[in-house]
Write a structure and sequence with these properties.
The protein contains 7 helices and 14 strands. It is an alpha/beta fold. The strands form 4 sheets. The chain has a 7-stranded mixed beta sheet, sandwiched between helices. A 3-stranded antiparallel beta sheet has the order 12-13-14.
Length: about 260
């Protein structure tokens, strides 16, 4: 049997292993072989240089918001690359290449960047559009206990590119505080829970001038819908393009990060 070998030039490492508290033998082996080791966020930041970078930050609906944005972009034939933390319909992996794209969509949370870098994962991205969907921490190991969780989101706000946009949930006092204290050279846009109604025919997203049937319901999902709408408008889509996409069969992704491989 013929044995094939692969020449490795670079190792990317995520912070997932930190959650178990165990060391990473592959990382140790890479260091012993003098291979270049970078965190996944730093790798993505370098890879997306020159692109419109969209990052959704938070612990509750970040994956759903990112998935809605991806669905809207794809529905409108706008190519993009992505990095999200869970499987979602229509995508084989949690990361998608896109060397010829001009837009990148990412989901960042407070997990540490990698075994080699103790800053939260969302710090390195330098987004043009950033979403703080909520700061209330529901993952005990997301950031070190000695650090102020709100401060971590202030850092992501400080990394937004000049002229960029910070979208934040208006009913989260900490998110509103981060926005109020952020730089003056970025635009701050609050969002609220999207209007909706439910009847025997289904659930409808409702605005002052439209009613669109959607495949999901509930305040949490309508919160995510509102954030995704603001992202897409900031990225250049029209309201008609966004609602046509969301009404075309979008389904809420299951939060199951182990069901798909992270492939870059």
């Amino acid at each position: 049997m013929e044995t094939k070998t692969m020449k490795v030039h670079l190792i990317t490492v995520s912070g997932a292993a930190l959650q178990s508290g165990a060391g990473d033998p592959e990382l140790l082996a890479a260091r012993n072989r003098d291979l270049s080791v970078v965190s996944v966020p730093d790798f993505i930041n370098g890879r997306t240089a020159g692109k419109l970078r969209i990052v959704v930050c938070g612990h509750h609906g970040a994956i759903t918001i990112a998935a809605m944005v991806m669905h809207a972009l794809e529905h409108n034939n706008i190519p993009f690359e992505y990095l999200i933390g869970s499987s979602t319909d229509g995508y084989e992996t949690m990361a998608g290449p896109g060397s010829d794209t001009r837009t990148a969509v990412g989901q960042g949370d407070g997990y540490l960047t990698s075994l080699t870098d103790s800053k939260p994962e969302f710090h390195p991205y330098n987004p043009h559009i950033a979403v703080i969907e909520g700061i209330t921490q529901d993952q005990k190991n997301a950031v070190p206990a000695s650090e102020d969780n709100c401060e971590q989101f202030s850092v992501i706000a400080s990394t937004i590119m000049p002229g960029g946009i910070l979208l934040y949930y208006v009913n989260d006092p900490q998110a509103a505080e981060v926005a109020a204290n952020s730089r003056d050279d970025i635009r701050k846009v609050p969002f609220d829970i999207h209007g909706y109604m439910v009847n025997k025919t289904g659930c409808y997203a409702v605005t002052i001038n439209r009613m669109v049937r959607v495949g999901f319901s509930g305040e949490e999902n309508m919160h995510d819908l509102s954030a995704a709408r603001e992202v897409c408008l900031a990225a250049g889509l029209t309201e008609d393009q966004f609602y046509a996409a969301i009404g075309s069969g979008f389904s809420i992704p299951e939060c199951n990060p182990s069901s798909k491989n992270l492939s870059i």
